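Hi, here's the filled form for the chain we discussed.

Project: internal
Contact: R.S.
Residues: 380
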Amino acid sequence: MAVSFLSHELSDLCIGKPALKSLPISATVGEALFALRQSGEAYVSVWTSDSSKPETKFCAGKLCMVDILCYLCAKDNISSPAAALKNPVSVLLSKEAAALVRCVDSHSRVIDALDLILEGAHILLVPIRSRKKLQLHHSGIFCWLTPEDFARFFFNSISVFSPIAACSVTQLGLVRSTDILAVHHHDPALSALPLIHRALAEQTSVAVVTEDRKLIGEISPSTLTGCDESVAAALAVLSAGDFMAYIDWCTSPPDAAVRALKSLLKKKGMHEMVELMDVVSQPVFSSSTSSSSDEEGEIRKRPRRLRRLGSYSSRMGRRSEEAIVCHPGSSLVAVMVQALAHRVGYVWVVEEDYGLVGIVVLRDILKVFRDQFAEQFLIS
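And the returned structure, exactly as it came back:
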């Protein structure tokens, strides 16, 4: 089994992977937005060239919808989002952006590629249709791998790592209990903007909690990647709790919720955000009218619910406001099932009363596997 496991190349993880959409560094934020919509993927890659060798191109970073939402709601752009969309895409790339994306050969060992992930890479670019040199870019020849792909690979070979799979996340030291990203449900959603941006960088999420630190939901970058830019309007004016409810509808909010959100925006003089919503979609409104308080109440949709580990409802799909949770005694394999089933890079750890204990991050789980692999098979 060990020999078979060691023989896997990175290309084995790329089977069925779509080509990664790419953009030149000269593209605008609006063009990046359009590319994300068209590709249906979570990320697009941005490519640039060396000024001394313009024929040589390299990846300058990756972008997703969360980058754009945070940018549109930044202090300098929130009053004029339409103008912000015309800026060059380079404004979305941090100084560390290029280091988060690594190009690797498809024949690399999985274990060697995993080391790049553990060193901080968010995405690995792997050539899938060309034997051109990695630093040369040709549209459609790269696919991308994330920590989730590696976690799925290790999960499919979980018997190799017995008995740690049955150990609890607490026993394995996987529960991060300090420096948790959290916001109170009544706080303005906009106050969570730095936390959302950080959660994206750390591949985690922002917990939404009560005053006594009970977990009632989350604002997850993985959910926001499936939204459109109109969600920036909700982020600009709603509370964290109401924003949770709004993104539950993602790209199809009810007419009443749209009316309520527009009413709030107009009260705050944020007319360009209203225009942004109109550009994205043209909802058909009912002819009936309701009071402002009734409209704003529509956004509060319903009480928050959390999923317990292994529950029937958790296997039947996930609403954005419902955080994926486990308990301190949950096994490593059970937590992996939760994360992989819902395609998130983390699982919240709670007590029976949903008091927030901490978070388990997929990247930390991968490190456990890597350490165990080195110990069992003497691979450095």
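Let me know if anything looks off before we file it.
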